[in-house]
Amino acid sequence: MPTSRLRRFFYENGLLLVTFGLIAGALVGQVLTGWHDNNDDLAQMGLAQLTLGQYLHSGHFLEATFENWESEFLQMGVYVVLTIWLRQKGSPESKKLEGEEDVDQKPDTTKPDAPWPVRQGGLWLHLYKHSLSLTFFVLFLGAVYLHARGGMIVFNIEQAHEGKPLITTWGYLHTSRFWFESFQNWQSEFVSIFSLVGLSIFLRQQSSPQSKPVDAATSETGK
């Protein structure tokens, strides 16, 4: 176990720190390649190209970023909610087929180290009990709006170039283009849930909390 304060911090937060680094690296790659790709499109339409700073405020960047974030937040929100009630025999991603688990127990409002909303009780406790799924769905709706906002800006640039009428963000939400962009991302996220739940029945990854023990029976359900 690391002893120095800095090493302990990295040890205790390694998963978040590494995934944040992966997000940052992928986002930088997206920005640089998206900037050049968007400028190629603008050049073909005879429009002024954007600086990198301008690109970060463009509809192209907004749309490309948030149509993906939208699907991720939807995936996790749906996954959290579905695993409350549904079971899958043999999967570590499922609760056990019979009986209650720790997560089903009524919160102990007298526990001294419980989070503040639990000790407060009432409305705060009720909201906190559902805060994970609620937050994912709020983030999903926010990403839907920013996806539509960015898509509307890109769409209107194309419309103006062709001398066609412009639309609002609400109007873009009613286009087949918006829903095509959304559904193609949503289905891929549901495929990932299906794959993780299904493959984890039969396959193992030693030392991963997403896997059952290597010697666990295929029919064993839960962690």
Give me the secondary-structure topology:
Layout: H1 5-12, H2 14-44, H3 52-55, H4 59-85, H5 116-120, H6 122-129, H7 131-161, H8 169-172, H9 176-202
Helix pairs in contact: 4-7, 4-9
Commentary on this structure:
It is a single chain. The protein is mainly alpha-helical and 223 residues long. It has two domains: 1-55; 58-99 and 114-223, no CATH class. It has nine helices and no strands. The protein has helices spanning 5-12, 14-44, 52-55, 59-85, 116-120, 122-129, 131-161, 169-172, 176-202. α4 packs antiparallel against α7 (131-161) and α4 packs across α9. The longest helix is centred in the first third of the chain and has 31 residues, at 14-44. It is elongated and about 65 Å long. The mean pLDDT is 94.
Please bin the fraction of helical residues: 55-70%
- The chain-level structural class is mainly alpha
Strand content: under 5%
Count of the separate structural domains:
2
Q: Main β-sheet: number of strands, strand sense, barrel status? A: none
